[in-house]
Amino acid sequence: MRGKIVKGIGGFYYVHDGKSMLVECRARGGFRNRDQKPLVGDDVLFSLTEEDPGSGRIDELLPRRSELIRPAVANADQALIIVSVQKPAFHPGLLDRFLLWMNWQALPVIIGIGKTDLDEEDKEPAIRRIYEGAGCRVCSFSAKTGRGLEELKEALREKTTVLAGASGVGKSTLLNALMPEAAMETGELSKKLGRGRHTTRHAEIFCWAPDSFLCDTPGFSSLDLPPIEADQLRHCFAEFEEAGTRCAFRDCLHSREKGCAVRAAAEAGSIPESRYESYLRFLEELKARKPY
Ligand SMILES: Nc1nc2c(ncn2[C@@H]2O[C@H](COP(=O)(O)OP(=O)(O)OP(=O)(O)O)[C@@H](O)[C@H]2O)c(=O)[nH]1
Ligand SMILES: [Mg+2]
Ligand SMILES: [Zn+2]
Hints:
Blueprint: E1 2-9, E2 12-16, E3 22-27, E4 43-48, E5 55-61, E6 78-84, H1 92-104, E7 109-114, H2 124-133, E8 137-140, H3 149-156, E9 160-164, H4 171-178, E10 204-209, E11 212-216, H5 241-244, H6 261-268, H7 273-287
Parallel strand pairs: 3-5, 6-7, 6-9, 7-8, 9-11
Antiparallel strand pairs: 1-2, 1-4, 2-3, 4-5, 10-11
The structure holds guanosine-5'-triphosphate (GTP), magnesium ion and zinc ion (ZN).
Guanosine-5'-triphosphate binds near residues 167, 188 and 218.
């Protein structure tokens, strides 16, 4: 039989047959030795245990369309990175890190600006402008009022989308809004720290419309950088490209070089300050890394 791994916990994989059956499976011995660890999102061939039709065994992993490391999910077509305008407050550094991971993993990204019902300070337009300028598709929405959900659904339809974002931004709440039967657990923010409480502990996939899958994932509060070379980083910032052609040196790293047109553009405000700051921070971090 053919199915999809929708969840993996403690050595068990939950395989959905695409109709109505969810089977608790073990992986056939040998997967791990051959460096093939089943991932949430994997399409598999499985068989049922004779004595207990609720449980089974994964016999084969079918070829993957894509394989993500952060979060560890197979066969995603795109990522929806969610940020919230408030509660928790928008944190550009973390979003920029996540964009870098998705860029490195060559996965198309949609940025979802959520909780717009809380946007009394009208922060949405500025966030949108920065990330549209970085070449991203941006959708804003409120899972609470439903505003923007129709546009978001169109962006998610007939695709497998992995949800990503800091703890507490509303990933599970969005899933519940699109699919009440999912009944994902959601959590209040910590009053003291104003951060999420890491309510979701495991990646889990749901089919919310025909051929349309959403993978909820645990939120993060910090993130390292993908293994890219420091001198490749500038190519991950699309909005530097144009000014970059006018730098005095062709191999300019856009930090302290004389005649750097990217720095000049950031100072003049035509490249967003927060993006340039992220770039400089990431550059130092990558330079400080041991070579691979
Ligand atoms: N006002 C408002 N609150 C929201 C909205 N979406 C989510 N929340 C609230 O934000 C809090 C966190 O939501 P979750 O869905 O648990 O966040 P999460 O991103 O899944 O968090 P983790 O599972 O910890 O990664 C909950 O109290 C939700 O009710 C929204 O659109 N508007
Ligand atoms: Mg959650
Ligand atoms: Zn430069």
